Amino acid sequence: MESEADMRRYFAILFFALFAIVPFFIGSVQASSFHPQSSGSTETPQAPSPEVLIPGAILYDRWYAALGKEAPSGNMPIWSRQSTNSRSGPDTWRCVECHGWDYKGVEGAYSSGSHMTGFPNIRKLVAGMEVTEIIAHLHGSKDPAHDFSKYMDDATLNNLAQFLKYGLIDDDQYIDDISLKVKNADVDHGRQLYNQTCAACHGADGMLIVFHTEGINEYLGSVANRDPWRFLHRTRFGVAGADMPVGAKLGWTTEDGRDVLAYAQTLPAGLAIPSPEPASSNATPSTLVGGPPAKTIFGGIFTGLGSVLVICLGSVIFLGLLLGIGALVVSALRKR
């Protein structure tokens, strides 16, 4: 009897042991055979076409202008989380104002100065994310205050996400963050590209168009030397509302843009002069009337003398007209 009871106990213990072990065994097998299906393919996704990257890059620059809209009223909700950047209104809604033209946020050019916000390095942030995850983030999945779906449809958010995933570059390879000079550039090649593509609008010396930037007017050489990251971004992808050749459409590589930037840094920088603010948040100020100011002291003297002569000539003509009218009136009175 005891042996039969022992056998029953043995089988009962064995049954409960198997009941406890089998689920763990099945679970471990399933876990070891699971592979995330994030992209549906083991192949590395190809970068999107320029037709996708260019709109995305322009959205990163100033998305509301790219869409032909006014910026939302007030400040972007996240803006209140920082206190170092005193800008307000439309600028607070721009991706670039938080994450910089070098895409490094607080780790890059915006680690200090008036543009500093403390917001993160966007290149690092998206490095481990799929495009679908970036879009979800732009929908506010991780932070409701970062929800842009109220202002951009899914196709537009996809363009922005594609640029963030595939269009960002490591500017440290091209620009020295201390001297702001270009690294390892072929200036002669940049000169050729500039003369072929850019000089027709900007002029051989880069002073034909005057740019408005935060209350000052400056020339192309000024932009290239003061903010090379912005120059390179816009050389590659263009500017919202501006009809200009775009490197990505021309088949330029990033190195081609780097070479053009290096040549532009050799152009005259000129003097920054005050400029009125644009009428709206996405307006592009027109070129200064009369072109850029005189480049030399003699040019300034001749310009001033010309202005005096014009004023004197106008005054003589005006006085002549007054005397003529007076003579006619006197002659009419005498005839009476």
Can you tell me the number of structural domains? 2
Query: CA-to-CA gap between the ends?
Result: 159 Å
- How many strands appear in the DSSP assignment? 3
Secondary-structure element order, as H and E? Answer: HHHHHHHEEHHHHEH
Ranges with pLDDT <50 over ≥5 residues?
17-43, 277-296
Number of helices: 12
CATH class of the largest domain: Mainly Alpha
Strand residues, percent? under 5%
Q: How are the strands ordered across the major sheet?
A: 1-2-3
CATH topology of the largest domain: Cytochrome Bc1 Complex, Chain D, domain 2
Task: Based on the coordinates given, report the CATH architecture of the largest domain.
Answer: Orthogonal Bundle
Characterize the biggest β-sheet.
3 strands, antiparallel
Q: Classify the helix fraction into a percent range.
A: 40-55%
* Structural classification: mainly alpha
What is the molecular shape? globular
Rg, please?
A: 33 Å
Q: Please, what is the average pLDDT?
A: 81
Describe this structure in words.
- The protein has 336 residues and is mostly helical.
- It has two domains: 50-168, no CATH class; 183-310, Cytochrome Bc1 Complex, Chain D, domain 2 (Orthogonal Bundle), CATH 1.10.760.
- It has helices at residues 2-32, 50-66, 95-99, 122-127, 131-138, 154-166, 187-202, 220-226, 228-237, 247-250, 254-264, 297-335; strands at 211-213, 216-218, 273-274.
- The chain has a three-stranded antiparallel beta sheet with strand order 1-2-3.
- The longest helix has 39 residues, at 297-335.
- The termini are far apart.
